[in-house]
Specification:
two-stranded antiparallel sheet
Length: about 290
């Protein structure tokens, strides 16, 4: 079976940290008096995609980041069972869409077309968004790597979903369960503090000084991360370097096909996901 482990998620965090560094490099260059588009770094999305997949005899297997969400938050119900919601695909899709839009503009500028201050402003704000989204995902993967340490912590997380380790000969007793809860709460506190610090550190380095103040409080958080693996199958698609199983890929592709009626002109910023696409992405929370 595919072996996605602590080292995998530490590497994922490193890749996302590189994305943040590339964004901040590009923002600093855009703030110069005479920005040269050939000095902007094209931001990579393939490395993370390749890291989170493997190939076995039966085909490709993909790793997907999810989170255990309390029932009232997930469904509005009063069940004691947490829901496992696969938020990783949505977050990576939104990040990679912003990256793709920025990379298209950079490629256009390198071809010799000059669009002036409007496009420079669009690029700067795009890099602000990318840096914030990548920072949030970076911290989520770091947190995931931390909560994978300790068998009792894994038992506790599975218990939240009313699942258990196959053939578990040492189930949690009350004392060990309490200790695992205390450890989880400790790690969550560290994660929230670290995320707040990482987001705050961006504020003075963004293109728009107010961006982090406005959007930082709503950044992606995943307090109880749990990863899943799923085998590639018929109808699955890779969109913006994010793998989607058929149940998500088909409706998403239909929506994207409608958007293709509006081409991305070099003289104007690409459209952002909104409207029907934003509602479609809510499917990930069902």
């Amino acid at each position: 079976m595919a072996d996605f482990n602590i080292a995998t998620f530490e590497r994922a965090a490193t890749i996302l940290a590189d994305t943040v560094d590339d964004c901040l490099h590009n923002v600093a260059h855009l703030k110069t008096d005479w920005p040269d588009m050939t000095q902007l770094r094209v931001i990579d999305t393939a490395s993370l995609h390749n890291l989170l997949r493997t190939e076995e005899e039966g085909g490709k297997i993909y790793c997907v980041l999810g989170e255990a969400v309390p029932p009232a938050e997930a469904t509005g119900g009063d069940s004691q069972r947490c829901a496992l919601i696969r938020t990783g695909e949505e977050q990576r899709y939104r990040l990679n869409t912003a990256i793709s839009n920025a990379n298209v503009i950079v490629a256009t500028k390198r071809s010799g077309k000059d669009e002036g201050a409007e496009v420079l402003s669009f690029l700067g704000k795009s890099y602000d968004e990318i840096a914030l989204r990548a920072t949030a995902l970076e911290e989520a993967f770091i947190h995931l790597s931390k909560v994978l340490v300790g068998d009792d912590l894994q038992r506790l997380k599975l218990g939240l979903l009313q699942l258990q380790i196959a053939s578990d000969t040492n189930p949690l007793d009350d004392a060990r369960r309490a200790a695992a809860w205390a450890e989880l709460k400790r790690l969550v506190k560290i994660y929230h503090d670290r995320l707040q610090h990482a987001v705050g550190a961006l504020e003075g380095r963004t293109f728009d000084p107010a961006f982090v103040r406005n959007y930082g409080p709503g950044v992606y958080k995943n307090s109880v991360p749990i990863f899943e693996t799923e085998r590639d199958g018929p109808g699955a698609r890779i969109i913006n370097d994010v793998w989607f199983p058929e149940r998500y890929a088909t409706p998403l592709l239909h929506s994207l096909a409608e958007q293709q009626t509006q081409t991305i002109a070099p003289s104007r910023p690409p459209p952002r996901p909104r409207g029907r696409l934003s509602k479609l992405l809510d499917l990930f929370r069902r």
